[in-house]
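Protocol step 4 of 5: obtain the predicted structure for the target chain.
Materials: sequence only (see below). No template structures provided, no constraints applied. The aim of this step is simply to have a reference model before the mutagenesis design in step 5. Sequence pasted as it appears in the construct record:
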Amino acid sequence: MREQDKQMLADHYLDFYRMAYNLLHNETDTEDVVQDALAATMSAPFVKNPYGYCVKVLYNRCNKLLSRRSYVLPGNLPDVAEEENGIDEYRIQQLLDLKAQLPPRIAKVLDLYYVNGLTQSQIAENQGISESLVKKLFYKGHERLRQQIMNINNNQKYNNE
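Step 4 output (structure tokens):
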């Protein structure tokens, strides 16, 4: 990679940090992901657009990290003050209400994964369906929850203005 490309990436460090922090909401994870994305970009051969490549790597790393995080449900709340870990009962109840609006098949897949700790292949075997269908249901569930959460956040934003 050319020195001017490396300098351009260094100049945009704060942009990368903001992008990752908006997704992860955790400073330590954000710093790790940004450093990892920059290292991967700088070591990649023949990159025509280093900025675009770094953004792509950054989002992929963030999504991978987010997919490994589990949802915190009321049955397994940590014994920590609510202010310290950012969890409040209202948000948990909102998430549970949104999950209840999902089709039963999708909700079952999400429960088996997050509550029971099964892998996608174990879910496929347990439910007697193909692993590709499990992945599809899992993705649909995440997308619907994400869209519903975004709608709630947008409504709250407009109501506060």
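Step 4 remarks: The chain has two domains: 3-68, 75-160. The longest helix spans residues 131-160.
Proceed to step 5.
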